[in-house]
Design brief:
Beta-glucosidase, beta-glucosidase activity, Glyco_hydro_1, about 15% strand
C-alpha cells in the first residue's frame, strides 16, 4: 500500500470473528483479537493510518435469530 502512496487503510472489525456466538458470556475468540492487534501493529509499522468500521454486515447468527438483528432495540 505504501508503494502506491496510500497513507491510510479502512477495514471492518468482524463481530463474528471476535465473539462468534454473539454473546460475550460464551467467550471471546482470542485468535480474532490477535488478528486485529497484529493488523494494527503492521499498519503502524508502515505508517498507515487505520480507519476502523465497527459494524459492516456480519451480525452473529445467534443475535439475528434471537432478536432479529439490528431491527431490535435490544441490539442497538
Amino acid at each position: 500500500m505504501k508503494y502506491m502512496n496510500m497513507d491510510a487503510y479502512r477495514f471492518s472489525i468482524s463481530w463474528t470473528r471476535i465473539i462468534p456466538s454473539g454473546k460475550i458470556q460464551t467467550g471471546v475468540n482470542e485468535q480474532g483479537i490477535k488478528f486485529y492487534h497484529d493488523l494494527l501493529d503492521l499498519l503502524g509499522k508502515h505508517g498507515l493510518e487505520p480507519y476502523v468500521t465497527i459494524w459492516h454486515w456480519d451480525t452473529p447468527q445467534a443475535l439475528e435469530a434471537e432478536y432479529g438483528g439490528f431491527l431490535s432495540r435490544n441490539i442497538v
